[in-house]
Amino acid sequence: MTIGILAALFERERSGLGQVVDAAMVDGSSALMAFIHGMHSAGRWSGERGTNLLDGGAPFYSTYETSDGGYMAVGALEPQFYAELLQLLGIELDDPNRQMDERHWVEERELFTVAFRAKTRDEWSAIFADSDACVTPVLSPWEAHLHPHNIARHSFVEVGGEIQPAPAPRFSRSRPSIPFKMDEGGRDPESALASWGVDCDEIEGFIGGGAVT
Questions:
Q1: Contact by Cβ (8 Å): 133, 76
Q2: Is residue 76 part of a domain?
Q3: Which of 43, 94, 179, 198 has CA 20 to 30 A from 164's CA?
């Protein structure tokens, strides 16, 4: 929706005319599927679940369980990243250039499965931390704020002793304010409306009319 509004504003500046923006979630999801349709047309996406390049069919684009029950996500599509993946896993193949040959995918998945189960999630995270192998730990939502990348970017903030996502996107010049504590908006609608600039008379009208309880 935001992109559509920006595009309409840009077009208006050039044409001097206004227009209605017709945006729908189904159109956006269809646009995101464009590359899948392209792969299917080229015979590179069968449609059978779990057998394709990006849906878990490829051993180098999947998730693997570790020795402690955690998981690591692998997305080593490019040849140089795939080579580094093999090196850090300690796997040697007869032909390391066979990456896209689907006939070897079952065998390679077994090799990757055994390798990842040899160490814990944290151990693998440390091994792949500074590599280009495109391997990352699978974190729960309650662990995400502890990841070094999110800490460095200040992707989460603490408000009233509770962790929540920081405002996004970010700008170089203007800074968003720190959000309210998570329960203030729902439990105290009067304060929420006041913080949005709604004047007292309007708020009283909403309460009197039953729009706010």
A1: yes
A2: yes
A3: 198
